[in-house]
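Standup, Tuesday
Yesterday: got the pipeline producing structure tokens again.
Today: sanity-check two examples.
Blockers: none.

Example 1:
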Amino acid sequence: MRAFFLAKQRVDEQVEPLLKRFDQQLLQQQKLVDVLGFLSPAILVNEALNAIAGTDSRRFVAFKTQTEVFHNSWREHFAPRIKDNLATTADDLEALPRWHWIELPASDVNWRVGSRILLFLILVAGFGTVALARSARGPVI
């Protein structure tokens, strides 16, 4: 068990920088979508629905970050016991790290959803106004 733990720890140390880079790139991609999303009504609706469902990239990164913090506390709890070949007792169970999800502030989610819906409605109103103005001039064909 000790050899497996040490090998896993080395793998985690090598993979961790790659995962952090992935998360940073994901957030950069999301910022680009936030800036250019108004060009596509489909992106606006998709982003709003993802935020409502709780499956948007910001929430994913928040979940992943909190999971990594929990994983590290779990590892810190067991590492000395594994290295010293100590068995876990019933009393040790109370000291186990516990997972606590911290939800993103509702105001952030409401802002992301509301701004996308508002922008979508502005685009629809703009296209509708152009279509009505053109149709008032007579037949298009």
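Example 2:
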Amino acid sequence: MSYGIQIDDAHAPQPTALRWYPVSNSGLNLEEEGQNLALTPINDHEFLAETLETSGWIGFGLGVYDKQDGSANKNGVYQMRCSLNGSMVQDIVFDRISFDETKYMNRHMDYLHYQERKQRVQKLFRSSNNPLGILKSLEGDGFVEINPGAAYTYTIELYDFNRNRTLITVPIVGVEKSHKTKEQSWENGPDAKNQRAELIEIPHSAATSWSEGNYSVFFPKECFYESTALSLSVASEQLLLDQDRYPLFKPIKITYRGDHLGEDDLAHAYIARLDQYGKPIHQNTSRSGSVLQASVSTLGKYGVFFDRTPPSISMKAPDEGQWYSTAKKLKITIKDSESGIADYRATINDKFILMEYDYKTNSLTYDFSDAVISEAAHNLKVVVLDNAGNSATFERLFYRKAND
């Protein structure tokens, strides 16, 4: 639309979630203190939030989408303007963003809420170590201060590119803090043995290491967006790096000492992350003697696995010895259910052919228009290597009319 293309759009942006974040000294990430506020629609483009009673510095976050006429697709909004008692405290305009800044989008969103609820919420304030240019550098960076005994009206104006507007109003009453933080819940909970003390503090401004059993983890300087306290442990030869609740800004390095493993085991070993169903997802693993290493960009559960099964290679057509002159393309299916495909090479009559790999369909495709082979006999050979060093070879003879 910014290039002069007119699109019919009479739909105003629609909020999906409103959250608020008290700024505390508990040492917790701000997202851990986030709480929902209920929204009541007044009409199609106005919403009223439940009254918030609190005091001190707070920030807000919003989940929102926009649609255009004749489409069910959900898009983002163009502008979010926030005010307290009529004075603007934040103005976020999604007009342009540099590629270098996209790595800070995980910082801009409530990553913890997304991982727990699969609901995207954007912060209406600038978190520390977030230089995104779409946020205006205003006084307070979008945070607002609430004093006991005072009343406030916080408003959020949402606009799409066609300037369709939605207004959210949040009444705020300043009272002495009455909500219980997670820090207070821990101290007064049944496990009063200070659960917080069991967490490992990973400083933002310095590199640090941690080790237990056969595992060690190196956290480089500024690997998180802020200092972060993690639950780290090893159980049943699996490394538990907290949960995927905190986004990493830089990869961290996992090292596994496999002195107790034999050469055959080490030759087929790799580090993997376990998904929510317990399936191992191969991580790019290097080996030096009996030491395995992998750089990872996600917290969660990791382990060392062994893959001794070679990849599978299959082809529906042509059959062995068949004439295949009318076909324009040759398709082969390759799979590896454990460590995954690492590399492949295909030749016809010992001449290299370029095959396009589609990992979504597990297929290799060769276009005969490349005209690498002029003979009628085509001796196809495909070698596939997985990430654990297992290889498989597939061969088939077929014929095509010369110069076809």
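Quick observation on example 2: The two ends are 47 Å apart (CA to CA). The chain has a mean pLDDT of 91.
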